[in-house]
Design goal:
Blueprint: H1 9-28, H2 40-57, H3 63-80, H4 86-92, H5 95-101, H6 107-137
InterPro entries: DUF2809
Protein name: DUF2809 domain-containing protein
Transmembrane segments: 43-61, 104-127
Length: 141
Amino acid sequence: MDTTSFRPRWLSGLLVLATIALGLASRRWPGLFPAVLEKYPGDALWAQMVYWLAAIVLPGASVRRLAAAALAVAWGVEFSQLWHPPWLDAIRATTPGHLVLGSAFGVADLLAYAIGIALVAGLDALVHAARRRWRGLHSAP
C-alpha cells in the first residue's frame, strides 16, 4: 500500500465535497446505513474527508503518508475533546464548530476513524495500482 502517485487537487476537492455530502446525509437520514452502526458511518466519513483534505495539501504523497496524516489529525481532534476551555467549547457549540471539532471524546470514535481511513486508503491504493497497470499496457514499446 506504499503507492505514490500524483492526485489532481481538483479531484481530491470533489471527493472532499462528496464525502461531506454523504456524511451530512448519514446524520440527516440515519436509515442510509444499518441502524446497528449508529453514528459511526458519519465518523468514518469525517476521517475520510480528512484523508482527501490531506491529498489536496500533499497531492504526490504515498497512500501510507496520507493515511498516517489523516489518522493523526482525526485522532488529534478526538483527543482535543478531552480539553474544555471556555473559548473552545464556545466554538464547539456552533454547528460548524461541532461538525469539525466534535464535542465529547469517545474511544469507539477512534476505531471508526481508523476504519474509515483504512477503507479510503485501500480504495486510493487500488486506483493508483490500476492506473499504473493501464499506463504499462498502453505505453509505447
